[in-house]
Amino acid sequence: MRVAMIGTGYVGLVSGACFADFGHVVTCVDKDATKIEKLKAGIMPIYEPGLDSLVAKNVEEERLFFTTDAKDAIKDADAVFIAVGTPSRRGDGHADLSYVYAAAEEIAQLMDGFTVVVTKSTVPVGTGDEVEEIIRKARPDGDFAVVSNPEFLREGAAIKDFKIPDRVVVGTEDERARNVMKELYRPLFLNETPILFTARRTSELIKYAANAFLAVKITFINEMADLCEKVGANVQEVSRGIGLDGRIGKKFLNAGPGYGGSCFPKDTLALTKTANDYNSPVRIVDTVVEVNAARKKAMAGKIIDAMGGDVAGKKIGVLGLAFKQNTDDMRDAPSLDIIPALQAAGATVQAYDPEAMDEASHLLSDVTFTKSAYEAVQDADAMVIITEWDQFRALDLDRIKGALNSNIVVDLRNIYAADDMAARGFHYFSIGRPSV
Ligand code: UDX
């Protein structure tokens, strides 16, 4: 199959590279000429484990191409994927669909022969209808079908999530489009991955419902963590105790500083907006949005309390800035709420992140970025872990102790065992577990 991928952001690039690896011929199109030049030279615009070698291999084997010129890519394509951004619109929180609609206009002008137009971007229910209308208006005679095919890729595990997914969701009632989609995902079909064919609007809602449900799960355990701290219980054991019930499931029950990233904050908000528009509010999700935002802000207070209630003139060593491990993505990262609040309380911050410091340097001011975790805690009055990078789990804790000015560790990701930290002489604070 020949595929055109419009948008080489996170989703477009990973999906394009993976479809090429499935054996299809994929052309990734982006208006950003610098990005395309870099991709041609093998330089990835994002950090994603395994992506550079996957791209290199498929470029070399001539199945993956990059261009700024949509013309040939769309004309020759069996399927054109729209994988452009749908950021939260300033002011009202609705998803901004201008890039999606612009892509639809462009496809309408350039498509040739039966073309399946696939929306991969996360779009509100009904967007597929709008895309269809835009194309139909521009090309009344056009032979095309518009399909919804949401992605469920986690940053840091995106290639695995694409190639070994729990399921693929395809929303279309068009028989020919269904066959094209079957062909595109054939390797998964052979692996018996469930492929759910459904109506377009249902498919669009599945994406939001999945993300919102996971956000609810995280927020639920975060509130349980707060309660655990009050009643002297251990949230990790609560997670295990409830997660072993197959109806609840073990995953996404790690308490932390609140969810961030490019999807959960944006998609939960957009879902609440859509629900309100249809006069069918999703009150649980409304609450989750509010509780999560408040939680990220409250984390600075937790750190300040651990440091004795006053951080004026104190130095804090922060480990981890990205919204989670294995990514350089800083979008809605808890560190963006926590660090400015610590600075406002008079503290200075030295920080280290294995991948996100470049990105973070544009978003945070007056932070000293260091070359290692050890440098970040040098002469600091506390060590604070915000992101759970694996390399922070295996630190030389004696060296950390020697570098710190105190023995205070605040671990917002529960990556250490409390009794071990106590035995090493740390005053250790974590999430939803007794402090030692
Ligand atoms: C998410 C979805 O998982 C993915 O299916 C969707 O397509 C895009 O959004 P991503 O944002 O990359 O993926 O990260 P994910 O691993 O889901 O984590 C989201 C946030 O929740 C992070 O801030 C993470 O730290 C937090 N989280 C996750 C927790 O706090 N606890 C958990 O148990 C799991």
Automatic annotation (TrEMBL):
It comes from the Bacteria. The lineage of its organism: Bacteria, Pseudomonadati, Pseudomonadota, Alphaproteobacteria, Hyphomonadales. It catalyses: UDP-alpha-D-glucose + 2 NAD(+) + H2O = UDP-alpha-D-glucuronate + 2 NADH + 3 H(+). Pfam families: UDPG_MGDP_dh, UDPG_MGDP_dh_C, UDPG_MGDP_dh_N. Pathway: Nucleotide-sugar biosynthesis; UDP-alpha-D-glucuronate biosynthesis; UDP-alpha-D-glucuronate from UDP-alpha-D-glucose: step 1/1. It is an enzyme of class 1 (oxidoreductase). Gene3D superfamilies: Cytochrome c1, transmembrane anchor, C-terminal (1.20.5.100), NAD(P)-binding Rossmann-like Domain (3.40.50.720). NAD(+) binds at residues 30, 35, 86, 122, 155, 266, 331. One of its GO terms (biological process) is polysaccharide biosynthetic process. The active site is at 263 (nucleophile). GO terms for molecular function: NAD binding; UDP-glucose 6-dehydrogenase activity. This is UDP-glucose 6-dehydrogenase. The keyword Transcription does not apply. Residues 317-418 form the UDP-glucose/GDP-mannose dehydrogenase C-terminal domain. Its EC number is 1.1.1.22. Keywords: NAD, Oxidoreductase. Belongs to the UDP-glucose/GDP-mannose dehydrogenase family. Substrate binds at residues 152-155, 207, 252-256, 260, 324. PROSITE patterns: PROKAR_LIPOPROTEIN (PS51257). It comes from Hyphomonas beringensis.
